[in-house]
Amino acid sequence: MGRNRLRSDLASERPSRLDWLAVAGLIGVGTVSIAALDAPLAGILALVAALGFGTLLAVSEAGLLAGDDSETDGE
Predict the structure, then answer these.
(1) What is the pTM of this model?
(2) d(CA 36, CA 60)
């Protein structure tokens, strides 16, 4: 019961489109910074941040943050 409730709670809190827009914006800023060679370090950091944030959003959207608590559930 606890595991199903946890998964349903996570399923109801999906990332918004604004979160995905932020990821796309970071990728755009990083790509432009690297391509223009004005600030390659800032561009690389923006791309790394976008990849990390995007991965976190994808994992939370897929519901993979819900751990298997069957050992502690007692059922």
Answers:
(1) 0.41
(2) 34
